[in-house]
Design a protein that fits this description.
Shape: globular
Number of helices: 10
Number of strands: 10
Largest sheet: 3 strands, antiparallel
Strand content: 15-25%
């Protein structure tokens, strides 16, 4: 559901305690070396998301037109500058709405798709040809409402809508009857099939978890060699992290349970950047797959 509201920029800064100001956090906010992507960007974001309840849903309400990664990246930078989480737009967009960016304000960096070119040599003919490909780079193009001044701005606040049947159909996932006699098993996944225990404590969280196993490719790894498979602890961390993100976005019970489950499987090991990227990508795909087509418009 959605509703309109007039944004008020005089919210107490204490309501938005900034993330820990580590060197990595400053590097993330400043974009690092030019537009380069900081080495542990998504691992840092995931750690902050897990340790700060409510940040995901708050970021979604303000930045629902953006990808999940950009939502969290924007929220992180705003809080590091002691600014409220508020709508963002480019300089030109704010100008079109009758607002101007205040002098001296520093832009927020988000990921943008860019077309790049490289020379590639054909090994058979030795002929070089130019190849175009898409990548993502950080670009400083956005400013928050609180960095602008001018006409009153009305922001449409949205809460995500999600339908499990839509999402399963999008990924070709089938839910089958639960046939394991172990009452402690909440659910399981195999190939493109999932099963949820009728007595599961949090069936929605279990469904997110099992669907994540399929989306992340864990269930397809049964045909791989042992050294090609994702270790079980990482499979569980990835799937439950996706479940945690979906529960947070949809404001559903199970967030504390998911956080504890992740910590048990992760132990004292830090989450690797590649695994954090996989988690955010899968969560973003799963969220969008379950949303009505009219609510999946995206700016970046």
């Amino acid at each position: 559901m959605s509703q309109s509201r007039h944004h008020r920029s005089n919210r107490s800064k204490s309501q938005h305690a900034a993330f820990p100001r580590t060197p990595e956090a400053h590097q993330r906010a400043d974009g690092g070396d030019g537009n380069a992507i900081p080495q542990n960007l998504f691992a840092d974001l995931l750690r902050e998301v897990v340790s700060r309840p409510g940040i995901i849903s708050e970021a979604y309400r303000a930045f629902h037109a953006y990808s999940l990664g950009n939502q969290l990246l924007a929220a992180s930078q705003l809080m590091e500058r002691d600014l409220p989480i508020a709508p963002i737009a480019s300089f030109k967009t704010w100008k079109s709405k009758g607002r101007m960016v205040q002098k001296g304000q520093k832009a927020i960096r988000l990921f943008m798709p860019v077309t790049l070119r490289r020379q590639d040599r054909d090994e058979a003919t030795g002929i070089e040809q130019e190849i175009q490909f898409q990548s993502f780079m950080l670009r400083p193009n956005w400013f928050s409402l609180d960095q602008t001044e001018g006409e009153i701005f009305t922001h449409e606040v949205k809460s995500p809508e999600w339908d499990s049947e839509l999402a399963m159909a999008a990924f070709g996932i089938n839910e089958i009857p639960f046939e394991i006699l172990d009452g402690n098993c909440q659910g399981y996944a195999s190939q493109n099939r999932i099963a949820i225990n009728p007595l599961a404590v949090l069936p929605h969280k279990t469904r997110f978890h099992e669907m994540a196993h399929v989306i992340l490719g864990h269930t397809a790894e049964t045909s791989m060699q042992d050294d090609e498979r994702t270790p079980r602890n990482l499979r569980e961390v990835e799937a439950e992290s996706v479940a945690f993100i979906l529960c947070s976005l949809l404001d559903l019970p199970g967030q504390e349970e998911a956080r504890g489950y992740v910590q048990v499987w992760l132990g004292n090991e830090p989450i690797a950047e590649k695994n954090a990227r996989r988690i955010f990508t899968a969560a973003d795909k799963l969220l969008k797959a379950g949303q009505p087509a009219t609510s999946t418009e995206q700016e970046a």
